Amino acid sequence: MTSLSRENAVLISEVGPRDGLQSVAATMATADKLSWINALYAAGLREIEVGSFVPAKLLPQMEDVATVVRHALTLPGLTVMALVPNRRGAEAALEAGVHKLTMPVSASAAHSLANVRKTREAMVEEVRAVATLRDAIAPQVLLEAGIATAFGCTLQGCVPEDEVIWLAAQCIEAGADESGLSDTVGYANPAQVRRLFKRLRAEIGVHAGAAHMHNTRGLGIANCLAAYEEGVRTFDSSLGGLGGCPYAPGASGNVVTEDLVFMFESMGISTGVDLEKLIDARQPLMAGLLGEPVYGMTPDAGLPKGWKQQH
Amino acid sequence: MTSLSRENAVLISEVGPRDGLQSVAATMATADKLSWINALYAAGLREIEVGSFVPAKLLPQMEDVATVVRHALTLPGLTVMALVPNRRGAEAALEAGVHKLTMPVSASAAHSLANVRKTREAMVEEVRAVATLRDAIAPQVLLEAGIATAFGCTLQGCVPEDEVIWLAAQCIEAGADESGLSDTVGYANPAQVRRLFKRLRAEIGVHAGAAHMHNTRGLGIANCLAAYEEGVRTFDSSLGGLGGCPYAPGASGNVVTEDLVFMFESMGISTGVDLEKLIDARQPLMAGLLGEPVYGMTPDAGLPKGWKQQH
Predict the structure, then answer these.
(1) A311 — pLDDT class (breaks 50, 70, 90)
(2) A-B interface: how many C-beta pairs under 8 angstroms?
(3) Of A155, A226, A297, Cβ closest to residue B215
(4) First vs last Cα of chain B: how many Å apart?
(5) What is the pTM of this model?
(6) Cβ-count burial of B115 within 10 angstroms (0-12 exposed, 13-18 middle, 19+ buried)?
(7) What is the ipTM of this complex?
């Protein structure tokens, strides 16, 4: 891959099997999860967050996560990612053999306490403990700290930008390889996205990670565009917009992978994803979660006449 | 208004009472139209496309357009706009007293023939006839030519960019004051939007007009952002996303005014529109079109905690 083509390519990190499935009431059967992940892989997705390593009594949807990871590891070239809230989860995830860990660290002091009953400083120490464990037993595994509520919070409203950037830097200092920014509650606007990713890059350079945007107020795709224009090249999204926010399911949650891929490919920016096959990957999702609403404007409208993938 | 504040302000041109109402099967009663327009005006909208001057047998929803125009003219500071397909419609619109005429001129040769049974060249002559009439009887009235299918067409697929720019220039040469670009079928992507508006401005300078984007494939708001970044300051949109495409109603049609205003105001770009009052303006719309789906992510999700208008 030449430097020019890398410049014009993005990585779509599919979070549906984790973020989506843990936001819905139903539990998808293991076999259905594997079919769905196979279809996502067949469409060309090369980074998938396949589950969370959390106690099964808290999230029964994730009880089979080690099995799902083992299957995903058989797909060549796929980066198998899992969410871990703490050192204990990381231990299980590393034992299962994941390639990449992601830890949510909330920039909102109020959200951090409400969500994980820890201060932000305590979460940074959890990142440090996970990094130390990783260094000891699986040094090749990547560790991402996703800064949650980076653009605002339903509990405290405004989240000071200085605190967001400080927290991301603290996570890198604690041993995370990447720190991305998440619009957990859909408050972000494109000007804020550009400002914060610019500051993030100035502060932590190549450690600046993914944009994780929500479409709660309709700006998800525009915020991804703004992040792209600011140099971000990894984007989290969810097939069918599944998940993202348990209190406002579906359309209000994660950016829809299909629409995001449509935007980038239409602009001539390669995602490596075949949009027709991606739309096909909705079938196993819907079959595994009967009755659950699945969103996406591009799948509903169909591809433009004469539309061709750019790559 | 200082030059700096003008730089950071946009004009939202509400097209719902025309584009929305002519796309739905039901006919809104005249009194309901007036209540709705009053509510849009109360929210701060200062340009409203209130109807079409077309034969009532073709569009019975627009039979009362002259009455609607007369009412709208009583609202101080409102630019009252109407669509006219031809000289005959323009005559009636000028007689009713509109401030601004808009004529759709399709850049797709196939769409032009299918839609108005005229070549593009014949439509330019229609623009010339309307401009001549306007010059003779109401020289203060503005004439906009909206270049339809400027970003692609469901009949012919690709619409060559050279032909779009050529057509816009022809319309200005024929006497239109402004020529904007419409993504009639929702094919546009942000890179194309930037490219075409840049060329439009290079070709016709200050005569470059509004961006009229659709959300058919989820990119409507991102395309408005791209147009803004290219210097566009007038945006067409529709309350509740009403209309835009009779073959794919609702969410597939016009950009939702509420979400567009939320984006700009969140970015600190003044629209002059009070978002809470704008959301209130959905009530008379829904009351006047019982059962018609009304869209909008921002109204569904509610405003962010602590959110304040920027102006």
Answers:
(1) low
(2) 124
(3) A297
(4) 13
(5) 0.95
(6) middle
(7) 0.94
